[in-house]
Amino acid sequence: MNTHTAMHAIVSREEWLAARRLLLAREKELTAQRDLVSAERRRLPWVPVDKPYMFDGPNGSESLAALFEGRSQLIVYHFMFGPDWEEGCRSCSFLADHIDGTLPHLAARGITLAVVSRAPQAKLAAFKRRMGWRFKWVSSFGGDFNYDYHVSFTPEALAGAKVNYNYRMEDVGGMEDLHGFSVFARDGQGHVFHTYSSYARGADALVGAYHYMDLTPKGRDEDGLPFPMAWVRHHDQYGAAEPMAQAAQACCHAEAPLA
Hints:
It is a single chain. By secondary structure, the chain is an alpha+beta fold. The strands form three sheets. A six-stranded mixed beta sheet has the order 1-10-9-4-5-6. The protein is built from ten helices and ten strands. Helices cover 32% and strands 19% of the residues. The protein has helices at 3-6, 13-42, 64-67, 90-96, 103-108, 121-131, 145-148, 155-158, 208-213, 244-249; strands at residues 47-48, 54-57, 60-63, 73-78, 111-117, 136-139, 163-165, 168-170, 180-186, 192-199. It has two domains: 13-43; 47-206, Glutaredoxin (3-Layer(aba) Sandwich).
C-alpha cells in the first residue's frame, strides 16, 4: 500500500455512500451560504468614480468608461506586471489562462472583463502574444488607477511599516504591485460607479483549475512548499528546471499576505 492510499480508509460501497451523503449535506450548506453572501455583495452601496482615469490600450488612449465597451458592468483584473518587469507575474498568469473562454458568456450577460497593469502597453502586448491570450489588456502606466484601488504602492508608502492592502494595513514585503479585481457599473447617463473589490485569496474564485484540484484527493497539494503557488509556472514553462528561489521572485504569494 503506497503512502497516498494509506492516508485514506478503504471501505465498502455502502460505507462510502454514508460518508458521501454526510459531506453532501455540508456542501449544500456551503452552497446556500455562498448564495447569501453573493446576495449581500450585490446589495453593497456604490461609490461614484469622479477621477478621469485614462489607460493606454491596443488602439490608443481609453477612458475607464470606454473599457465597458457599451455594456453596463465591468470587471477589472489587477494583473501584477510592473513597468520594469520583463514578464507578468506567474500567479496572475495562472488566473489569466482562465479568462478568454469566459468572455462571450460574460458579454451575453452585459459584463465586460478587462485586465489592467502598470507595465507599458508594448510589454503587455508582447507578453500577451507569447501567452496566446485574446482578452483586453490596458496599461495604467503614469496614472493613479492602481494606487487608488490599492494594488500598487509608491516608494514613499513602502518606506513605512505597512500599506493599505485587502482592507487592512499589511506588510507586503516591499512589493510595489499586488493583485486583485475591481467591479464597476455604469448607469444610463454614463456615470461610472465602483461597486466591489477583492484581493489576495478573494481572487481564488476566478481560478477554475484550483476548483478542479479541490475535487481530488490531494487537492491543491501545496502543503510543504516554501509558499503557496510555488509550483506555478507560465504555461509555456512547465518542465523547465529552475531554482525555487528564482520562482519565489516571480510569485506574488512568496511575500504577500494570502488571507
